[in-house]
Specification:
With 398 residues, this protein is an alpha/beta fold. It has ten helices and 14 strands. The strands form four sheets. It has an eight-stranded parallel barrel, surrounded by four helices. The structure holds flavin mononucleotide.
Length: 398
Amino acid sequence: MWKPAGRSERSSSLSDLSGLEPRFTAMNIHVDTPLLTPVQMGALSLPNRIVMAPLTRMRADNPDHAPTELHARYYAQRASAGLIIGECTAISPEGFGWADTPGLWSDEQVRGWRLVTDAVHAAGGRIIAQLWHTGAMSHPDFFDGALPVSASNVDLEQISVTPSGRVPTVAPRPMSVHEIHDTVRAYGRAAKNAMEAGFDGVQLQANYLYLIAQFLSSGTNKRTDAYGGSIENRSRFLFEALDSILDEVAEDQVGIKFGPMHLAGPLAATEETLPTAEYVIRGLNDYSLSHLLLMGTNTDVDGSPIEHLAGDNMFRHFRRLYQGLLVANVDMDAQRANRLIAGDLVDLVAFGRPYIANPDLAERLALGAPLNEIDWPTVYASGARGYVDYAPLAPAGI
Ligand SMILES: Cc1cc2nc3c(=O)[nH]c(=O)nc-3n(C[C@H](O)[C@H](O)[C@H](O)COP(=O)(O)O)c2cc1C
């Protein structure tokens, strides 16, 4: 029988599997696996350690950028996850920058998300909102020709997803200090809206291509004021955004997605990437957040300054530095996930792509059942096809 190694305050009893009922009871499951054991995540009691990673699906194709009944169906189908992390959700009109994604700044959006949270809760699940500002990933097409904002005027050399299609990113406009303060406040307002919409908490999107990463990276942040230059200054925006969220939501309901990355263009890892990530993660220890979602490497890091963090080394490295609950992500399967949890390298495991085609991923992992294949053309599309029509497993005995 698997037993959690150390960190007993974060682990809970194998015998308490009440949260797995009724969806699991009819099946011959292997409950003696780390992934299927309950865990306390901040304020939330999770029945298992399977997390649905945030997945943008571009179904909010309405003028309000609001979730709909279709979103409610999609998320409710996935309610057997220990925790669902909602897709990237813009905190403000200025932070919007990816076609057909949802927001959390208006009453219509709060009403739309309420449909989702009610449906997930009715299906026995838990869901948190992911708070997002696209920064320089946005495009003038979203702003009547005006430039998107960022830390500095560095083109990310990425692709922007606009209402009229995929186009190259442009050099953004550096934010004034006044705009930075406004944006920090917008994180707090969106967090408040998330709680009004019935979410069980929020997660700050602080990695990958987006605004917070654009402030953190010396490749995209050329500022000479209090928000640029030193590691401490480049990290200031992240901590101010976090503090603003914490003005509205209790610490044990707030998590963060963060970690060092090596991307194409000016967001490529430099010698400063790892020290910056370490500074931030040490700083997160001053809070009692619900979790840190840490992505393993998902690009080719060979020859880069974060080469040594490939594979499980990412989790090994930051497990030593971070004192809170750690959620590991990227390229997971049941075997790797169970090994990472059993070895006390991480506490939970998040699955992204597998959740696209497998609404009942938790049951499938429990049973060792095969996974559905993703239909890629309908991942970023509109309507129900490829969104809510993936078949669940047939009930046992049929
Ligand atoms: C279609 C798609 C949409 C994604 N959308 C988001 C998102 O909205 N927010 C985010 O933080 N990550 C997003 N990601 C990254 C995933 O959350 C996850 O980190 C990544 O897919 C690696 O996990 P996996 O190997 O289990 O797929 C997305 C990934 C995919 C494939």
